[in-house]
Amino acid sequence: MMGSTIDNQAMHQALQTAFEFRHATKVFDDTKKVADADFNRILEAARLSPSSFGMEPWNLLVVQSPEKRELFREFSWGANGAFNGSKGQLGTASHFVIFLAHTDVNMRHNSEYLQNHMKNVKQLPSEVIDFMNTAYQKFQEHDFGIEGRRQITDWSAKQAYIALGNMMTSAALLGIDSCPIEGFELDKATDVLKTHFGIDTERYVPCVMAAFGYRLEDPSRDKTRRTLEQMVTWF
Predict the structure, then answer these.
(1) Distance CA 106, CA 114 (A)
(2) Which of 7, 61, 66, 152 has its CA 20 to 30 A from that of 204?
(3) Up-side HSE of residue 211: CA atoms within 13 Å toward CB?
């Protein structure tokens, strides 16, 4: 029991240290690269992340080519260093990730994609697939009222953010910096992905970006957050 208590205390401290360490890194040290083993661990955190109904409605695009990254600079104001006169995350991050949310083509109930996912990825028996189809249709049409391309895609993006959070926490535990990025023009990013990356944008659209690497310098101010009392209400 004593060993278990010590392990729990160590885990609590590791988590606290990781969350205090993590901040939205605006500029990375472009001379430092994240080791392959470490980044694969970060990717594994996304792969093992939970999702509603276990449908995993996201794909990750890791953009390492400087030329490919530059295609996003003009309209990715959240990553191009425009606010601080730097090369920004696009030019300095060790690894740059674009999250692709699945659209209604994949995620509408009874879609071919979902049938394949349940049969070949989740390896569910046919009777369970039939039950899941009925439950998922009820969820979309009645319980949450998720209908149409935009609503279903936004729902997929919500699931992708779970994976994003797990990736950033895993990175922080490894002493690796990160920054989530929503500052980009969606239509232009979608067009670049279709034209220059061959992405089927009827099925997949960008929902958020994330940069990983090692900070060039420490934050200029301490982390500020609401207190637990301000955030949490108990009944």
Answers:
(1) 7
(2) 66
(3) 29
Rounded CA-CA distance 48/166 in Å is 9
| Distance separating alpha carbons of residues 182 and 30, to the nearest angstrom | 22
| 10-residue averages of pLDDT along the chain (235 residues) | 72 94 95 98 98 97 97 89 76 97 97 98 97 97 95 98 98 98 96 98 98 94 92 97
> Which two three-digit tokens encode residue 79?
């990553």
Residues 6+ apart with CB under 8 A from 186: 205, 206
Residues 89, 141 contacting (CB under 8 angstroms): no
Residue 83's pLDDT is 67
Q: Which string of b and e fits 59-80 if b means at least 16 CB within 10 Å?
A: ebbebeeeeebebbbebbebbb
- The pLDDT score that the predictor gives to residue 81 is 75
Q: Are 41 and 143 in contact (CB under 8 A)?
A: no
Cα separation, 150 vs 146, in Å, equals 9
